[in-house]
Amino acid sequence: MPDPGLIPPKGHILPRTFYARPTLTVARELLGARLVRLLDGQRLSGIITETEAYIGEEDLGCHARAGRTKRTAVMYGPPGHAYVYFTYGMHWCLNVVTEREGFPAAVLIRAIRPIEGIEVIAARRKGRDTDGPAKLTQALGITGTENGLDLCTQASGLWIEAGEPVPDEAVTTGPRVGLNNVPEPWKSIPWRFRVQESAWRADPD
DNA sequence: AGCACGATGCTCT
DNA sequence: GAGCATCGTGCTT
């Protein structure tokens, strides 16, 4: 088994300055980027094809609507870190913290298209897809252990690399998913970003 | 292809 | 105690 520290990143690791910007910008630009997970010394990765923005305590769809709690503490921290939360009694979801320290905001990664470690991902998913926030964390072995990790260093075993930009024509927006009891305008505000895979496909490697 | 439902336990009121 | 940023199954069209 190779020393994980000796495996060079294939692409450019997105720096903290990428995340330290408006959350909607980050959510849009994460489309087409490559989410990389080092698991048992092996690179697993996928192209990000769906994201959602959660922005501040005013956003009643955001976990930070209740203010700073044990769960939301990471969102109040510096940008470029992983916010991983547990939900529905069995699922983990991965977010990346955005904006500035002290302001709670994050982007939920909702779907990836597997690129590296296809066999491992297929086995972990029992052949099912990776087009859901809890599906991709299961595929990549991401749980509460990864909460708070710095995504700007390879040492975390979890990071995001720059990818091929996705043109606007291939991106659709819409309301965020699953906010059934959230009041307007937050319930319907179009902070969900999706790649139409029929309209765009990145060159894998 | 679409909808209804149960699983399962943490978080905050 | 209620609700949850979900998923997979099974049943209906």
- How many beta-strand runs? 8
* Share in β-strands: 25-35%
Helix content: 10-25%
SSE ordering: HHEEEEEHHEEE
Distance between the termini: 23 Å
| Annotated CATH architecture | Roll
What would the average pLDDT be, to the nearest integer?
Answer: 94
Class from secondary-structure proportions: alpha+beta
How many strands, which pairing sense, and closed or not: the largest β-sheet? 8 strands, antiparallel
| CATH level 4 superfamily | Methylpurine-DNA glycosylase (MPG)
User: Judging from the principal axes of the Cα atoms, what is the shape?
Assistant: globular
- Report the CATH C-level class: Alpha Beta
Structure description:
- With 205 residues, this protein is an alpha+beta fold.
- It has a single domain (11-195), classed as Methylpurine-DNA glycosylase (MPG) (3-methyladenine DNA Glycosylase, Chain A).
- It contains four helices and eight strands.
- It has helices at 16-19, 23-30, 118-124, 133-140; strands at residues 34-39, 42-55, 82-87, 91-97, 105-116, 158-161, 171-174, 192-195.
- Strands 1, 2, 3, 4, 5, 6, 7 and 8 form an eight-stranded antiparallel beta sheet that branches.
- Strand 1 (34-39) and strand 2 form a beta hairpin.
- Mean pLDDT is 94; it is low at 1-8.
- The chain binds a DNA duplex (13 and 13 nucleotides) through residues 52, 54, 61-63, 66, 69-71, 85-91, 93, 95, 108, 110, 128, 132-135, 138, 176-182.
Task: Please name the defining characteristics of this protein.
alpha+beta; DNA-binding; globular; disordered N terminus; 3-methyladenine DNA Glycosylase, Chain A; 205 residues; 4 helices
